[in-house]
Write a structure and sequence with these properties.
By secondary structure, the chain is of the alpha+beta class. Helix content is 16%, strand content 36%. The chain is built from two helices and twelve strands; from the N terminus they run ααββββββββββββ. Strands 1-3-12-6-10-9 form a six-stranded mixed sheet, with helices on one face. Strands 2, 4, 5, 7, 8 and 11 form a six-stranded mixed sheet that branches. A hairpin with a 2-residue loop joins β7 and β8 (123-124). The radius of gyration is 19 Å and the shape is globular.
């Protein structure tokens, strides 16, 4: 078999497999442009252990994928009472902090279903919008917040069944007309 035939067969196999993977991908039905989140979820995650309260909350950076280690929710003292008031038995949680370069719309993307709160000045920030895709973990859910100021915010995760989750925080891309 000549070299061109081997290369052609290789391309057919590779492109055919990637086409099937894309067609079966349960993550393509988001109504928003999630290119940036999908790109981050395709990369390597930075491990980070959750804080048990505001003082021990580790700092997160924007545009980075994290593999977060959570702890039992009953061991966490939140900066503000979580929006989901009744946790499931055995739930896991954690507190983190992050700063912004400027006010604006930001997204928190996660790989599984659990509760996400952002706290500013001791109060919960209302979610602007959210989307999720069943069967998708790259990401599973995205919650969008309108955040004002550049001071540190707290990110509170609660009611997670697993003790390890993947998460990113990104600026919301400009809407295309």
């Amino acid at each position: 078999m000549n070299r061109n035939a081997v290369i052609s067969m290789f391309l057919i196999v590779v492109l055919g497999a990637s086409g099937r993977a894309f067609a079966d991908d349960s993550c393509v039905d988001f109504k928003w442009d999630v290119t940036q989140e999908r790109g981050l979820f395709a990369g390597t995650a930075t491990p980070l252990a959750a804080g048990s309260d505001a003082k021990s909350a580790p700092v997160m950076l924007l545009n980075r994928l994290y593999a977060l280690k959570l702890m039992p929710q009953d061991h966490v003292a939140f900066a503000a009472t979580p929006g989901k008031k009744t946790p499931s038995a055995g739930s896991n949680a954690g507190v983190f902090t992050f700063k912004l370069p400027m006010s604006g719309s930001y997204r928190v993307a996660v790989d599984m279903p659990f509760w996400i709160d952002v706290v500013s000045n001791g109060a919960l920030v209302a979610a602007k919008d959210f989307q999720g895709q069943h069967g998708c973990g790259a990401p599973h859910k995205i919650v969008e917040f309108e955040l004002v100021g550049t001071r540190p915010f707290f990110l509170q995760l609660s009611n997670a069944a697993a003790d390890s989750v993947r998460l990113t925080i990104t600026a919301t891309p400009a809407r295309k007309l």
